[in-house]
Amino acid sequence: MNAMKNKVQLIGHVGQEPEVKTFGEGKKVANITLATNDYYTNAKGEKVEDTQWHKVKAWGKVADIIEKYVTKGKEICIEGKLTYSDYLDKDGVKRYVTEIVANDILLLGK
Fold it and tell me: Which of 1-10, 16-25, 55-64, 99-108 has the lowest mean pLDDT?
């Protein structure tokens, strides 16, 4: 059991064009949204599609790959860890953010 760790693997479609920022000394961060779909049959026997949206952040080489090859609608697989943070908005209300920090990416589809 001690081999278990905070690990997330998702396959989905990119929801919008990646946002890539470069900091001093060429350090890059890429932010994307990823849609994953699940299907089930409801009580009436109807097929229902459930879409979940995930915020994904990537640094370094993974950010470089996203900048060069990932566009809106592209199917990708990411692996990373789940992170939580909070901040105060302009009205002083505490807001919470859940995102995945990707450490690996696999480009799928066309």
Answer: 1-10
What is the value of pTM for the model shown?
0.84
| Residue 97 one-letter amino acid | V
Burial 41-68 (b: 16+ CB within 10 A, else e): eeeeeeeeeeeeebebbbeeebbebbee
Say what the pLDDT of residue 26 is: 82
Distance CA 51, CA 30 (A): 22
pLDDT, average across residues 1-12: 84
At residue 40's C-alpha, the angle toward residues 76 and 96, to 5°, is: 60
Query: CA geometry: angle at 33 spanning 95 and 67, to 5°?
Result: 120
Lookup: tokens for 25: 């000394």
Instruction: Tell me what pLDDT residue 1 has.
Output: 56
The label of the residue with tokens 């994904």 reads: 56
Asked if residue 32 lies in contact with residue 99, where contact means CB atoms within 8 angstroms, the answer is no
| Secondary structure (3-state) at 21 | strand
